[in-house]
């Protein structure tokens, strides 16, 4: 049985009540680099997004889950994107919103739950992630869960007028 509940957090579907939480994340310029965002999102677009969040991963090729404390306080997001059922692979990304909640194991627990879900429930063969070369905490997190560095994309993203390299990490389910 696949569970999306861990010792300290659980992963849950997006709810209309998450509007302000999502709006703040999507419009926080400090984290736009992670999501390759270059423009703000309107309240209207976030509302539409939440109204369509119920759609099936097989239809929309992505799934966003809220990382929540056991007291049901939203602290982050974890995403499956580029879901490719034919080739049995998907990209994943994770964000803990408040820096004060980082480095407490929430992201690690969420990542482990998502890996288990992807391999056991979605029957995926591989997962991948893209991480900026200077995002050392994320590199350490994904390596901890046996993601292997398989490539370096040179000058991949422009951040504040400068090019940055990005690593490609991959986890294959044996």
Describe the structure.
Pfam families: Acetyltransf_3. By secondary structure, the chain is of the alpha+beta class. It has a domain of 116 residues: Aminopeptidase. Helices cover 29% and strands 35% of the residues. A seven-stranded mixed β-sheet has the order 1-2-3-4-5-7-6. Helix 5 links the parallel strand 4 and strand 5. The longest helix has 16 residues. The protein is globular and about 40 Å long. The model has no long low-confidence stretch (mean pLDDT 91).
CATH classification, class level of the domain at 9-124: Alpha Beta
**N-to-C order of helices and strands:** EHHHHEEEHEHEE
The helix-and-strand class reads alpha+beta
Strand order of the largest sheet: 1-2-3-4-5-7-6
How large is the share of residues in beta strands? Answer: 35-45%
**Low-pLDDT sequence parts:** none
Rounded to an integer in angstroms, the radius of gyration calculated over CA atoms is: 16 Å
Q: What can be said about the biggest beta sheet?
A: 7 strands, mixed
CATH topology tier name of the domain at 9-124: Aminopeptidase
Name of the CATH architecture of the domain at 9-124? 3-Layer(aba) Sandwich
DSSP helix count? 6
Shape call: globular
| Total beta-strand segments | 7
The proportion of residues forming helix, as a percent range, comes to: 25-40%
| CATH H-level superfamily of the domain at 9-124 | Gcn5-related N-acetyltransferase (GNAT)
Report, as a whole number of angstroms, the end-to-end distance. Answer: 19 Å
Mean pLDDT: 91
Organism: Pontimicrobium aquaticum
Keywords: Transferase
GO molecular function: acyltransferase activity, transferring groups other than amino-acyl groups
Protein name: GNAT family N-acetyltransferase
């Amino acid at each position: 049985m696949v569970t999306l509940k861990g010792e300290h957090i659980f992963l849950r579907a997006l709810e209309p009540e998450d509007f302000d939480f999502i709006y703040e994340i999507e419009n926080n310029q400090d984290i736009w680099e992670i999501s390759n965002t270059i423009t703000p999102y309107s309240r209207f677009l976030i509302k539409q997004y939440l109204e369509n969040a119920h759609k099936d991963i097989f239809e929309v090729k992505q799934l966003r889950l809220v990382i929540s404390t056991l007291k049901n306080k939203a602290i982050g997001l974890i995403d499956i994107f580029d879901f490719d059922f034919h080739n049995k692979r998907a990209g994943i990304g994770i964000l803990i919103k408040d820096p004060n909640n980082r480095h407490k194991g929430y992201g690690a627990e969420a990542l482990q739950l998502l890996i288990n879900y992807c391999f056991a429930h979605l029957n995926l063969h591989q997962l991948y992630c893209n991480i900026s070369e200077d995002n050392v905490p994320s590199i350490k997190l994904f390596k901890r869960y046996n993601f292997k560095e398989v490539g370096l994309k040179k000058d991949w993203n422009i951040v504040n007028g400068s090019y940055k390299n990005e690593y490609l990490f991959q986890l294959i389910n044996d």
